[in-house]
Records
---
Amino acid sequence: MKTQFHHLKCRRQHYFCALGSHLYEPEAMKMKREIGLIGGVAFISGTMIGSGIFMSPQFVLAYAGSPGASLLIWALCGVVSMFAAMSYTELGTLIPESGGEFIYILRIFGPFPAFFAAITFIVVVRPFGVAAVALGIAKYATAPFYVGCDPPQLLVKCVAAAAILTVAIINVMNVRIAVRIQVVFLVVKVLTLMIIVIGGIVALTQSQRVLVQNLNVDDAFKGTRYSFSTLGMAFYQGLWSYSGWYNLNYVIEELKKPQVNLPRAVVIAVSLVTSLYLLVNVSYLTVMTPKELISSSAVAVTWGNKVLGSWGWIMSLAAALSTFGTLNGSFFSGSRISFVAAREGHMPEILSMAHVHRLTPSPALIFTTVVSLLVLIPGDFQSIVNFHSFLAWFFYATALSGLLYLKIRKPELPRTYRVPIILPILVLIAAVFLVLAPIIDDPQIEYLYVTLFIFSWVLIYIPFIHYKLYPSLLTKLTIFLQLFLQVAPAEKTCDAD
């Protein structure tokens, strides 16, 4: 990769000369370690709590077939997320670099598989996630105006597109505002979930018979669907709600004392979110029958109308604001994948650059915005989540297999944090199930299309990554975009506080 780094340095120097200014020093482009333990907890939990808990419960229940199986799946999703996050913590302390799956696969298995991880997350997984979260915002924002019926799809997608553009502009313009939004909306998220939990407790104390009827305590698992496909889809929807357990690994170069704060933040955040999710689902089933929950297009709004009456619209607003915070966090962490992949020479170098004044990764943010808007046009929430989870868990499994390799073949590596080898093995088994179950039990041609799309990028890898071809036209385009966007390459954070 020395050739690629040389190109980056030359581009930066050319940029400074082209501007005719010496004000933009390279040191100013370095990332700083500004995320502490509290910030780490807020970052993980703030990204996890979003559209999932307000959109997925009806899908989990529909796929699971019974309230008992639904609650069990929610609990198991929390356990899988905790084990996966703890395994990622060991990876993060062994390889303390930002970039998540991409950087782990690159350092362990080499550039070829790492390239496909980068392409998958930058072109598919992250944009799919952004589109799904934006659809969640739109559904809750429009729900109060269409009581008793679903809002028009065109309106929903227009509102979702507006949310994506708003968050993109905020993240491009000012990092400080983006961080403050994340903190403020985390408070909104927790308060919203606590209102649902307390409302469920009040409803339960008023009539315990309602809970017995809705949960069918005598036979809570009656009607459970045991096919691989339905269980896999139920886990897709549940684990979507836990998405974010890995986000601190993407920005570990900006985390203070990562060897200490990463494991602590993971355990605190995932435990908090799992407890809240279980209590919220019990509250949903306390107030609504399983049939009402499954048929609801916005479960928190239905819950609010039943519990809060004429004030039910508050839940719609709170859910939309909560999901907006998740969208903001997704943009914040997602840009680091593009940045690190481009820094390592696996993506166009323009994506590794930040604005010289605002220090925001504007090229990566603009790219994610455009792809997310394209995904939004044909997609719906359920299918977007399913394909997102299918691809994401494939590369989670690849990264976890890398951890197993290091544990077995490289036990001498210094480790400040260790997890029992059984944890990554269990998560790896779960990941293989999540990837293969829907294909084996209910094969759909769309999964083949997505897989072929990912591997078709080998046509890009061979000339530009393996043989390091660098056409002069690409050089001119990069310089033009640097001048137009006023960006320059950012330095890697090498110190380890």
---
Amino acid sequence: MTTYQMNFNQDFTSLSVLSPTGLRLYSIASQDKVEEIFAKDNTEQIRIVERLFNSSLVVLVTAQKPNCLKMLHFKKKQDICNCFYPSEILCVRMNRQRLIVCLAESIHIHDIRDMKILHSIENIAPNEQGLCALSLNSHLAFPVCQTSGELRIFNANKLRTGMTIRAHDTPLSALAFSPSGSLLATASERGTVIRVFCVKNGQRVQEFRRGVSCVRIASLVFSASGDFLCASSNTETVHVFKIDGRAVEAAELKAIADVAAKSEGTAKESVTAAAEEPAPVASWGGIFSKAVSSLLLPTQVSEVLAQDRSFATVQLAQGGLKHICALTRVQKELRLLIACEDGFLYVHEFPADRGGACKLLSVHDLRGALEDIIELQLSESVLRSQIKSTNPTIMTQPSLTMLKSCAASVLIENPDPMQDNSYASILKGDQADAMSDSAKFRKLCDAIDTPTKLYDERQFPPVAIAAKD
């Protein structure tokens, strides 16, 4: 089966799909519709793709030139710049101010407005996976030890080294900042425990137990509001955990109290009080300490750290595949998006008020150009007939179990059939029978128009550099 490299942009409004034959960018317009906005043949053997928010700027790294970063303005079909590095590029991260290039033993920080290099973090512990995370306010986190889960936080705006946090006993496998940059989620190579830390003081805010078996965390991402944390692995379950607002508030108050206590201690060293002076009133540090204590008693702290159940879950029909998740609003509704390396995008309802199982709403086949799309409204009776006539070895593929429990709206592509044991191949195999049983098939638009404006020049100024190496 052909595998596809799927990657959301920073605000989860688009998805890149990379295969051995081509690169495509899709805009996620609604739960029932995705729009192809860019396509490119993969003649250069592209291996890394990153799009800058909703702009026309895309960063590419190829297997032919693994130490070269190419920035492309895909709307104008124009190369902006090429940047070369001393070794292979393992990871690229971007926000509106900074572009981060992670190599095995160094990290390079660029000003994204002109691509000038501002700082290089050299001689870091070997980071063969290129693991790093960049927040929207330019906090950078990366591992600093090969034998334990120790990480460092670096301020990429002020170019200052921050604190070091020992997050896990075993090496790290996933890092993710909350949208505000105040929280950092981590997972180790074991994948059994996910921890959330306060970026201001390194205090552990919450701890979630994903399970007891060791797994590889494939995706770790906060929701746009920062209230939830989603984790996927190589198992059949996607977990969504709820962030405790009281625990976050307590950690932030503790950070403020620490700063106040430190400044108070400095002041006491420089001021000698008269012996006859009355006892001073409670200090700011003491007030904050009491406030923190009143928010979370020791027993409550232990309860927060012991939260080991996920708030919501998605049961996938097949494990062993890499799934990249996003928990974001689509047309003002909170949705859980799961992009699978089989080339499909799954859209789930997210019950933010009650939690539990997330209902599948639609499936999009993104393995090829979006042409001749057919929308299927599958009734339970049609599903039963399809399942009965389906090879049992294929029934374990994505979404049949979910579809059986709910009538789902499924978008599939209709090119030449592919023998790949995927969900869409099952539907295509029975397409003729399904059409005879149901009159709910209809053609969508003949062609998908590219949006007339892909970016706002004022909000996303293109990189102004003409030099090419």
---
Amino acid sequence: MMAANGKDACGLKGDEPSVSVNGSSDGFAHKSRSLAVNGAASELQNGGTSGPERFTFSPEPTMEDIRRLQAEFTDERDWNQFHQPRNLLLAMVGEVGEVSELFQWRGEVAEGLPGWTESEREQLAHELSDVMIYLVELAEKCRVDLPQAVLRKMALNRLKYPASKVHGSAKKYTEYKD
């Protein structure tokens, strides 16, 4: 298991708007205004909006911050000797299995996880964090600049799946005709 605390990192403790600025408990400078709407955080922009907006991640920590924090965590424990690419991949696959267990036997689950308890949501946050931590460390060990790789992959996906051809369809790109 990896060390992570998603609740503290998001800065939301109740259903009141909150503003976090330098000196937050997670060690990162924050400057955002959040509002809980129907149990989900929604960013306020341009002085506030009505209605829920698309979910967004916090701007911090960055992926590089996560890489650095995990590297420090690993170094402090002298675990680099165990963190070779194959081992990290297998550990990540195990964590994906733990995420799968949380969804197993539930049938379809709607966006926002209605009906999930706070404890179930927190467990999911822990397991997804483990997956991401292992993914970032695997990318580091393989010398893959993950943010840049994502940008390149998204550019390829735009070519493989042009919106004009695939809009509203779940077909694989090999099934489309020109």
